[in-house]
Amino acid sequence: MESARTQGGKRDRTMHGAQNRGTAQGASEELQKISVFMLKHQIAGLPRNYELVHAAFTGGNSDLARELATLGPRPAQSALDQLGLKHRLPGHCGVSTERLQEETLKTLSMLSDHLSLGLTQKRAFTHSVESVIRSIREDVSVGIDQLLGELELLASIAGDMVKAETALSSQVSHGLESLESADRAMRAAQAAMKRDQLTGLANRISLFQTLDEVHADASPAKPSALVLIEIVDLAGLQHQYGDEAVSKLIRGLATIFRKAIKKHDFIARIEADTFAFVFQGINADEAHIIAERLFTTAENNLVFASETSHDVGGLPLAIGHAMAHEAADSAAWLAIAKTATMLARQNPRQPIIGYKPGPRQVA
């Protein structure tokens, strides 16, 4: 018994080691491909540019890939930023937010300068009025002509001040409109940073925020489950059917999943090939049942022709799930769900695997 357990442990370690080596090799090749493309096209090595090229190569977004290609060699950074903003990539949305914040500060500074100028003019007018009153009090014999002259001077100063106040009112109004416009744009940019451009679902950033919030409140008495659904060999599907067909498939899958869950359940697309779901108030057995239902729903609604025949088959999926209270933190929660998904991917006969703490960590 002990020997069999030891041999099983060795097999598990070998399996994990092979998987890690394969994952590292794939990531290395992907990074090399991106670096070569950026070097060839003389694209600056900025983080947001890496994100843009990575999304074009691996995000299943044929429109982005095509539009990036049309920019040709040595594309301007402004063109890259516009493209990234159009496709709502988080890095470029962040740059847009920073720019809007700078414009907001400039507008506030301008309004402050104009208000300061208006205050200076008011003080000058008040000082002139005080001077005329003091002059009259000190010399009660002032003639009517001199008094009228001083009053005309005050009227002239008051007229100039009214013009300045009118201009200031207009400038303040335009400034407020600018601030409101910038606020709307920043809110839109911040919302876009949390959305997947291809499917409109929440993205990885939104998932991390949700995991932090849910894990903080999770307990055995208040359980929450994370379910990951991975499209097996997405790169192979892209090679076989083309980027446009796979993009449509992913959008179709997103629609199916969204309709298959309740409104308060959370769904996100966190990788080109991976969807994430967060379900609150369910236990591990219920999470497994939901995972089976999602698998069956996808299998019944999405079919494609196999490469070797004209028959059709269900979309190959691997599903892993884990409970929040069984993880030390939100990062560990995601990690163990990924491990369960990896094991499901390696065993097509058991495409749905749930994490269980203890010696036997799958169910």
Automatic annotation (TrEMBL):
Q: Which Pfam families match?
A: GGDEF
EC annotation from Swiss-Prot or TrEMBL: 2.7.7.65
The protein's GO terms of the molecular function aspect are: diguanylate cyclase activity
Cellular component terms, GO, for this chain's entry?
plasma membrane
Gene3D superfamilies recorded:
3.30.70.270
The record's region (Disordered) falls at 1-27
Q: Which NCBIfam families match?
A: GGDEF
Q: What is this protein called?
A: diguanylate cyclase
Species per Swiss-Prot/TrEMBL record:
Agrobacterium albertimagni AOL15
